[in-house]
Amino acid sequence: MQAHFLWLIVGIVLIVAELVTGTFYLLFLGLAALVGAAAAFLGASLLVQAMAATGVAVAGVMWVQRYRRSIEAKPMASLDVGQHVSFESWISQADRVARVQYRDAHWDATVEGDCRGEAGEILYIVAVEGSMLRVAKGRPG
Fold it and tell me: Domains along the chain?
């Protein structure tokens, strides 16, 4: 069997495997094998075929790693931020910790800024830290 057919088969198998796994690594390895097939079809030596495939594979894997790091570096915003809560009572006014009602449940919250501390006062969620809310009088920007 000719070399370009072997490269082609390997490339197709890797691309099909990528469709099953969804990692993007196998996609670039499959594309690298297709580049090796093209080099073989054009009559390049085995060394040139391997170098061309390796170059594409290394560049593709580096791109996937950089892309994944950029996604992981971005913290996902909580959907709760900006929602309103109803002030119920102070747990510790000195520590600015209060009990609020949000989504028909009682939550502990750290109050930032001015707050009259009256039952029913509307505050807005600024951040969620574990099971604790950070709330403030104004809506976050």
Answer: 3-73 (no CATH), 84-136 (2.40.50.140)
